[in-house]
Design goal:
- 2 copies of one chain form a homodimer.
- By secondary structure, the first copy, chain A, is an alpha/beta fold.
- Chain A contains 14 helices and 9 strands.
- In chain A, strand 8, helix 8 and strand 9 form a beta-alpha-beta unit.
- Chain A is globular, with a radius of gyration of 20 Å.
- At the A-B interface, strand 9, helix 9, helix 10, helix 11 and helix 13 of A face strand 9, helix 9, helix 10, helix 11 and helix 13 of B.
């Protein structure tokens, strides 16, 4: 019989991920701060839990997909949190993009209670979550990772074990760092195209297939040019991620001037009221 | 009968490009500063010219692929240069990455002498040149572009007309701008992976296929990790290109902080003796 999965956090990503688990035949218990967001998944057969505590006491595997490290900390380590109430031998998987140091702390506390903890953030956005094609980068004990692989396979395609607790989060930081300065380059290239009197769409035909090519250039530059700033990935979440990466880099004694520049530009953008826009809205710093 | 093509500048790129033209059946005249570099192409049947003047007087189409804007200026506008000696009705095509403003100036002077000028820089590097798969981004009069299309097709695959004189160079600047900040992001991501104790090769398996994916991440990050800093594209040439782009951006009144940061990091790298290394050597600023 399939193990019971408890899913906490039903935003755009969480809803799609939980639906895949349900469709794969697992019994699914759900909890999220705003019950309304659970409506769809409850209609599909998930069972509502009134508290994190209730869910934790019943589930064999608990997945969290929430907003900020502070949420992760409260849900795992708080008075009514997961580690206090989960069953011995349970698996707990944080798929939120969160702090590597927090992931390590959770893993240590979990171990004391014979609970197996993994940090397994994802990339691929709402579309990847909907299509079950997320990239999943996991940290924790290898045996725990392998035990959870069937469940990961339901949600993602590129599933990689990256090392001990915190390694999933560190890997996600690498992902965000590569994106950060890259977005600045894409926006500047498009601004230059526009200001120099070129046809930016025509420019994209020349530059997307070669050495300047990137996911951002192919997928986000066209949205910049069309003035489509709807969120695939929110400015506010990107700022959170870059903040974590900068903190961690500082702990390592590393300077990250590209990352620092990108964060400062996104902070400026957010201050202009774009925190709920998509990351491609950085283009507005050049072209209104 | 095929028109006679004069090719000036036989570096790594020029040699491959001229060879494709020769193989396509055009008579090819060549000139380059260091005659030794012409040896291979002369063995294949190209005909040596002692001066730019000699070549210009005989060729129907003249292609230049030299180093710096100062070289372009001298070769086109100098006393013994192309525009002074080329035949009426000739086509002259500068494929060097050079200044948009210089391309415009050349086009104007050419027009006065009933010579058709195009600026048509390329991307795709030594491999693209060798395989005849360059991206060619062209500026100038549309009719001249169309007349030269069969010749472009011999050297490249993604051939795009971008607008009036200077538009090819402007498009190439967009290409370099997108690469510039992107390289910083790739190097920082790899440095973070290394310093946080991850296995960077394993990290690449997680992040190259998603939203962080780019040509640089797929092709240059593995070289960074292997310590392979051999030039695909020289640091010194990238610095030249970024310098042109920054100058042009300033003329437009645009700030390009990502580009400026990338250039300052590459300047630093160059000062450390890496000017003849490949652009992936930027990694050395983080990991020795």
């Amino acid at each position: 019989m399939n193990k019971t999965v408890g899913f906490i956090g039903l935003g755009v990503m969480g809803n799609s991920m939980a639906a895949h688990i349900l469709e794969a035949g697992y019994p699914v218990l759900v909890y999220t701060r705003t019950k309304q967001k659970a409506e769809e998944i409850l209609n599909k057969g998930a069972v509502w839990q009134e508290t994190v505590k209730d869910l934790s006491e019943k589930a064999d595997i608990i997945i969290t997909m929430v907003g900020y490290p502070s949420d992760v900390e409260e849900i795992y380590l708080g008075e009514n949190g997961i580690l206090r109430h989960a069953k011995e031998g349970a698996f707990v998987i944080d798929m939120t993009t969160s702090k590597p140091s927090l992931a390590k702390k959770i893993a240590e506390k979990a171990k004391e209670k014979s609970i197996h903890a993994l940090d397994a953030p994802v990339s691929g956005g709402d579309i990847g979550a909907r299509n079950g094609t997320l990239a999943i980068m996991a940290g924790g004990e290898k045996e725990a990772f392998e035990a959870c692989l069937p469940l990961f396979s339901v949600m993602g395609e590129n599933i990689q074990y990256q090392g001990p607790a915190g390694s999933g989060q560190h890997t996600k930081m690498c992902n965000q760092i590569a994106i950060a300065a890259g977005m600045v380059g894409v926006a500047e290239a498009m601004a230059y195209a526009e200001k120099s009197g070129l046809n930016p769409e025509q420019v994209l035909k020349s530059i997307t297939t070669g050495a300047a090519g990137s996911w951002s250039l192919s997928n986000l530059a066209p949205r910049m040019l069309k003035g489509d700033f709807a969120p695939g990935f929110y400015v506010k979440h990107f700022i959170k991620d870059m903040g974590i990466a900068l903190e961690e880099a500082e702990l390592m004694g590393e300077e990250m001037p590209g990352l620092a520049l990108a964060k400062s530009l996104y902070d400026k953008l957010s201050a202009q009221g774009e925190e709920n826009s998509g990351t491609q809205s950085i283009y507005k710093l050049w072209v209104k």
